[in-house]
What we know:
Structural class: mainly alpha
Low-confidence stretches: none
Number of helices: 4
Strand content: under 5%
Radius of gyration: 35 Å
Helix content: over 70%
Order of helices and strands: HHHH
Amino acid sequence: MMNEEMMRHMQSMPGGMMNHPMAQGAMMAATGFAAGRGLFSFNPFRNPLVMLAGGLVAGYLIHKYEKEIVATISKVTGMGKDFALHQKENLEDMVAEAQEKEAQVAKPAAEPKP
């Protein structure tokens, strides 16, 4: 780490490295990276005991609320099936309307004029 005297000496040099905007930006970026890494590097999920405890808690909750989970999942899948059938009916209606319009447009063009 540089002390203040070294920084002043480097900055006072004519055409010194620290006077260049790119060097100043690089120093600020490096400082921000080091500070962010120190603040955000703590990750409790890397610890195997935390993962084991999380798995135990999840397993307990799934076992405790098994009936509610199954009921909710079956309700959601039923809603999904209903939605898909509804969309299929809408698509079939739209296709039928388009075919009727095509038939109406083609019919007058096919009739001979007297």
